[in-house]
Amino acid sequence: MDSMQPKKLIIMNILAVLRKYSDENHRMSQKEIAKKLESDHGMKVDRKAVKRNLMNLMTYGLEIECSETTRMVKNPHTGEMEESSILTDFYIVRDFTDAELRLLIDSLLFSKHIPYSQCKELIEKIEGLSNKYFLSKVKHICNLPENLPQNKELFYTIEMLDEAISEGRQVSFKYNRYGTDKKLHPRQSSNGEDRIYIVNPYQMVATNGRYYLVCNYDKYDNIANYRVDMITDIKVLDSPVKPKKQVRGLEAGLDLPKHMAEHIYMFSDETVRVRFIAKKYIVGEIIDWFGKDVKFSNETEDEVTAEVRVSAMAMKFWALQYAPHITVTEPKTLREEIGTELRKAAERYGKLGE
Fold it and tell me: Over 80: is that where the pLDDT of 42 sits?
């Protein structure tokens, strides 16, 4: 029978037991649940009370699965054998699978901008979404690096940007860069004062392990991208954002997949049509960077021509990174600029050997 503890706690403790010990691969009988109630919560509860509270949880809409078995039992009044149904194998249906939780944790571990203490706290919260069996699987996760430069205002900045985007309001902030002292320093105006940026925020996106704000710098009419972890002293203003139709490239709204494919390094210059010849063994990496809108033609046994729309500045950096494997053919100005950079690099490396 129930212990002297408040009966209203039974249903909460049963739920706690299911969350800690059960999943599709670890199902519990009513007897096992009762044992955990006693060992973990100091409550002695009989099987009927366990069943009654389990039924209430299921009636309230919690996703709890169980199986029904039939067995022959003796009727205490007549002495005859009768069929009796038993509910067993209870488990709570998880919102996330272990694989999904691990993916979320890995995303945090690979993040380059979330402060150590906040990252660790988030991982602990994610671990709490599963049970003790999941916790035993993630013990081997490596320690988070504590020696990376960090912006302690990051989460506050994200919160303020989310508020401004939702309410259609401008924001002001200081935009920083790291110095050799490994600290953030605000960019300055020509008079030596910290520069204040006023922008129209439209969207936050994550790419290359970092968070970016897609916006419009209020003085101009083009799209701008700012790293969120470089933003400090943010304020949400009362002034409304500039309508997207007044921003070049956003006249028809923000096509986020297209924008991300065209701004692989999140530079804010205009996009251009680029053609390049690539070794076929990097086709997968080309698709990873530029998406499925890349067009392939002139395929041979070893090479293929690719056509993409991309930020010219980003394409230059990408082409230098993949220089042994690709050759930009169009536009001519970009091809010549990349060639000049490669010759300069060869000269610098040549001098090191002299």
Answer: yes
